[in-house]
TrEMBL record:
<dbReference type="InterPro" id="IPR014027">
    <property type="entry name" value="UDP-Glc/GDP-Man_DH_C"/>
</dbReference>
<feature type="binding site">
    <location>
        <begin position="155"/>
        <end position="158"/>
    </location>
    <ligand>
        <name>substrate</name>
    </ligand>
</feature>
<feature type="binding site">
    <location>
        <position position="214"/>
    </location>
    <ligand>
        <name>substrate</name>
    </ligand>
</feature>
<dbReference type="InterPro" id="IPR036291">
    <property type="entry name" value="NAD(P)-bd_dom_sf"/>
</dbReference>
<dbReference type="InterPro" id="IPR008927">
    <property type="entry name" value="6-PGluconate_DH-like_C_sf"/>
</dbReference>
<dbReference type="InterPro" id="IPR001732">
    <property type="entry name" value="UDP-Glc/GDP-Man_DH_N"/>
</dbReference>
<feature type="binding site">
    <location>
        <position position="267"/>
    </location>
    <ligand>
        <name>substrate</name>
    </ligand>
</feature>
<dbReference type="GO" id="GO:0000271">
    <property type="term" value="P:polysaccharide biosynthetic process"/>
</dbReference>
<dbReference type="Pfam" id="PF03720">
    <property type="entry name" value="UDPG_MGDP_dh_C"/>
</dbReference>
<dbReference type="InterPro" id="IPR028357">
    <property type="entry name" value="UDPglc_DH_bac"/>
</dbReference>
<feature type="binding site">
    <location>
        <begin position="259"/>
        <end position="263"/>
    </location>
    <ligand>
        <name>substrate</name>
    </ligand>
</feature>
<feature type="binding site">
    <location>
        <position position="86"/>
    </location>
    <ligand>
        <name>NAD(+)</name>
    </ligand>
</feature>
<feature type="binding site">
    <location>
        <position position="158"/>
    </location>
    <ligand>
        <name>NAD(+)</name>
    </ligand>
</feature>
<comment type="similarity">
    <text>Belongs to the UDP-glucose/GDP-mannose dehydrogenase family.</text>
</comment>
<feature type="active site" description="Nucleophile">
    <location>
        <position position="270"/>
    </location>
</feature>
<dbReference type="InterPro" id="IPR014026">
    <property type="entry name" value="UDP-Glc/GDP-Man_DH_dimer"/>
</dbReference>
<feature type="binding site">
    <location>
        <position position="121"/>
    </location>
    <ligand>
        <name>NAD(+)</name>
    </ligand>
</feature>
């Protein structure tokens, strides 16, 4: 099928590359000439396992191309995917200017039936606004062309996006009942047929329900995390082990095991933004989502948990003290620093007078850029970036772990002990077993794992 993807950000690029991999003819559009040049010269703007190979293979096969030519992009695809950014406005609502600009471009240039697929995470009701924008453009040039807007939210996890796209748990598609809506449904069915071979994974629904599903899913997952973080903090007080509790409750199939890991708080581009946007939508309809307000507040507080543990152990004034930090990205397998808990921790350590040595397997470059904005050049000079994790440890009071990269799971604990000034690990991701740490002679503080008998 002929497909256009508008926006070659994270979602657009993964969607375009994976659809090309299935044999579709994909045209990717972006307004950013530099990004298009990079992609056309074989480069890739994000770190995502497996993506580079898929992009290279499909470019070589002529099934995937990148351009800034708007008219050509509209002419190309019967399916026009809108996958542009929806950054939060000052008030937390999703900013739809890029989505609506993409819709207007389609309306301005389209000559025959098109299906417009909303892939970006957009508030309930956006498909209607997209349709209205297209209708206005058509009216402007007195053109009569049929089209249909469908909602097809993505459920891609950064670091596993290719895998998530290729093996989806579910495909959610919202369409309307008009003649165009039925045509759109048939085309979407054809597009996703390769994913439904073994069993049907597509959930067909009305457009508003599909838009809502995306927010509901992310809000539910964020809620689970904040709930576990709150329980973990209490477990620390009462002397219980949140890991044992996680398994104890997760074994109930109504609860399940996943997304119950306590830690240093959630970050990334989706959960913080989507929780806020859903709260904002509710307010527009005179409803307050009390649970989500708490989810957000708990998460904001949880991002300070490692800082609080440092203060509890080393005092309020950290002047002259040096710390090692492993992990900067908001989660493993990505270089994404958006809303990363490491940013909150580093700011706190630096403001209390400490110096820091940091290591992340892939996010160092992005971290330098972001931390310069957060801290300013003078304070950034107090952060040393080391190429090897062990090199961050020398003369540090303690090792602080913020991201659960695989490479941190089985380090040489003897070397850690030798290189640190004190054998202390404050672990924001519960990577190690507290009893084993006691066994190797390391003072270990996880999140919610201070069982009384260990003390
Ligand atoms: C999320 C959704 O999972 C995905 O379906 C949606 O399309 C986009 O948002 P992503 O933001 O890439 O994906 O990351 P995810 O793996 O969901 O993790 C989000 C954050 O929650 C990370 O900061 C992670 O460290 C944290 N997390 C996750 C926990 O603290 N505990 C958990 O148990 C799981």
């Amino acid at each position: 099928m002929k497909i256009t993807i508008i926006g070659t950000g994270y979602v657009g690029l993964v969607t375009g590359a994976c659809l090309a991999e299935l044999g579709n003819d994909v045209f990717c559009l972006d307004v950013d000439q530099k990004k298009i040049d990079l992609l056309n010269s074989g480069g890739i703007p994000i770190h995502e396992p497996g993506l580079e190979e898929i992009v290279a293979r499909n470019r070589a096969a002529g099934r995937l191309r990148f351009s800034t030519d708007v008219a050509a992009s509209v002419a190309h695809g019967t399916l026009q995917f809108i996958a542009v950014g929806t950054p939060p406005d000052e008030d937390g609502s999703a900013d739809l200017q890029y989505v609506l600009a993409a819709a207007r471009n389609i309306g301005r240039h389209m000559k025959e039936f098109k299906v417009i697929v909303d892939k970006s995470t957009v508030p309930v009701g956006t498909a209607d606004r997209v349709a209205a924008a297209i209708r206005e453009e058509l009216a402007e040039r007195e053109a009569k062309v049929d089209f249909s807007v469908v909602s097809n939210p993505e459920f891609l996890k950064e670091g596993a996006a290719v895998e998530d796209f290729m093996r989806p748990d579910r495909i959610v598609i919202g369409h309307d009942d008009s003649h165009g809506g039925q045509r759109a449904r048939d085309l979407m069915k054809l597009l996703y047929a390769p994913f439904n071979r073994n069993h049907e994974r597509t959930y067909w629904m009305d457009v508003r329900s599909a838009e809502f599903t995306k927010y509901a899913a992310n809000a539910m997952l964020a809620t689970r995390i904040s709930f576990m973080n709150e329980l973990a903090n209490l477990a620390d007080r009462v002397g219980a082990d949140i890991e044992a509790v996680r398994q104890g409750i997760g074994s109930d199939p109504r609860i399940g095991y996943s997304f119950l890991y306590a830690g240093a708080g959630y970050g990334g581009s989706c959960f913080p933004k989507d929780v806020q946007a859903l709260e904002r939508t509710a307010r527009q309809y005179d409803q307050e989502l009390l649970i989500l307000r708490a989810v957000e507040a708990v998460n904001d507080r949880q991002k300070h948990i490692l800082g609080r543990k440092v203060v509890a152990r080393f005092g309020e004034d950290l002047t002259g003290k040096h710390f090692a930090v492993w992990g900067l990205a908001f989660k493993p397998n990505t270089d994404d620093m958006r809303e990363a808990p490491s940013r909150v921790l580093l700011r706190e350590l630096i403001e209390r007078g400490a110096t820091v040595a940091v290591h992340d397997p892939v996010a160092m470059h992005e971290a330098k850029r972001v931390l310069e904005l957060d801290l300013g050049t003078a304070k950034l000079a107090r952060v040393r970036f080391t190429d090897a994790p062990m090199d961050a440890l020398d003369d540090a009071e303690a090792l602080l772990i913020v991201t659960e990269w695989k490479a941190f799971r089985s380090p040489d604990f003897e070397e850690i002990k030798e290189r640190l000034k004190h054998p202390v690990i404050l672990d924001g991701r519960n990577l190690y077993e507290p009893d084993l740490m006691t066994g190797v002679g390391i003072e270990y503080h996880g999140i919610g794992r201070s069982v009384l008998t260990r003390k």
